[in-house]
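Service request form, structural biology core

Requester: graduate student, group of Dr. S.
Request type: structure prediction, single chain
Budget code: on file
Notes: please return the result as structure tokens.

Sequence provided:
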Amino acid sequence: MNVPARFLMFCVALVMATAYAKAETITFSTLPIGTVVNTQYPGVVFSLEGSGPLTSGSPIVDEAYGGLMNAATVVNGGFDYPTASILNIAFTSGVNDVSFQFDNDGDNSTSEFIAYGPGDTVLSSQNISGDSTYFTMYPVTVAGSDITDLEITNGYDDENWEFTVGSLTYSPAVSVTPEPSSLLLLGTGLLGLGGAIRRKFASAN
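Core staff response, request fulfilled:
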């Protein structure tokens, strides 16, 4: 393989690398207790929903469990009631490789998540097993790509069952359209390739 061809492959590899955005991780357990989490993270909106005691509002960082909770109020002593039945995480554009740390704060084995894609298509759902170990986060991996919405539910429509999300990890879905920076990189590479070819022909004559 000659030098210009190797250089062109190098440029293409660089452009492909820039097309894959780096994974983002939000660690709720490091936020101050009582922090309201809604739109402060670009590209993600957090809200409370469902038919439980609390059907709207924004979730907060819990004082007892140290993570994002399905509640909008803090009560001294570690009891955060009432809770919503759904913690909703909406992505303004599709994401891949979604996972989160989860503690259902008790022995409820009916907690679950539902992941949606464009057009509210259900991509995956899964029950999240419970146990009676408090203050222990367990990893949960969400199947599916181009996820636009993630609902985490406590499994009950009319009871105050609390759960906590310690962290959330996701990667922006790769766009088919190159970003301006990628186009600039490709253009610079092609210009360099053209210069290398001209020099090769000049030296051969």
